[in-house]
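Per reviewer request, we include the raw input and output of the structure prediction for the construct analysed in the revised manuscript.
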Amino acid sequence: MSVEHYTQLRALLDPVPQLTEARRVLCIQPHPDDTDIALGATIALLAAQGTIITYLSVTDDAAGLTNADAELPYEARVRLRSSEQREAASILGVAEVRELGFADAGDWSVRELRNCLVDAIRTDEPDFVLSCDPWLPYEAHADHVRTGLAVAEAAILYQFPNTATAHYRAEYRLNAVGFFFTDKPNQFVDAAAYRELKLEAISAHKSQFTSEQINALDAVDHERGQRLAETTGAVWVEGVKCLRPEWLHVLPEAQWL
């Protein structure tokens, strides 16, 4: 896209709001640790400034345990992951944690999840919805792809009264969807002051990561945040691809916005 084309396109579209100005955020994550890993510092910053944040985990994450906890019965694994997520969310200042209970790596459909998420958006009425980017190159985990696609479609369909449930309210409008774990961020949040809280929250997921794995995650996160910050003037940032819901349909230029 040429600079001229880009400028003309942006002139025709309402600017996407800044995530840091959101007052109510719904984080829809495939597993109970994804938002912490991707945007934990941003979540802590938002919570500190008074943003009301809700975590909605799609799956029970019962398949993801790799240490001795993997030997626990199914119900115990589900309770453990829920407990760890609530501990991490408390560290970051998240107001509410909810779970949909879909099977981790299970046989569920985008459509089935999408209808649940239409309900969630209508019920919570957030300014921003956050989720993982389903178009990330080389993303092989179907839970991530299906969740991101379901979120994107729900962000369009929540405003049509004949989809999903009767929670529809014509006056409500979702301002934007923000995709994390993305290779095309267009907003960069200077949340370096909250990196230690982010690491503390990730460390609460003890059944998922060894200390060596947490150190590796921290190292990658540090390098990624510095690289993304190179054009911002900040030292370290977290990146998000933020789009208005109406840009998520028949607008190829969304990849450049």
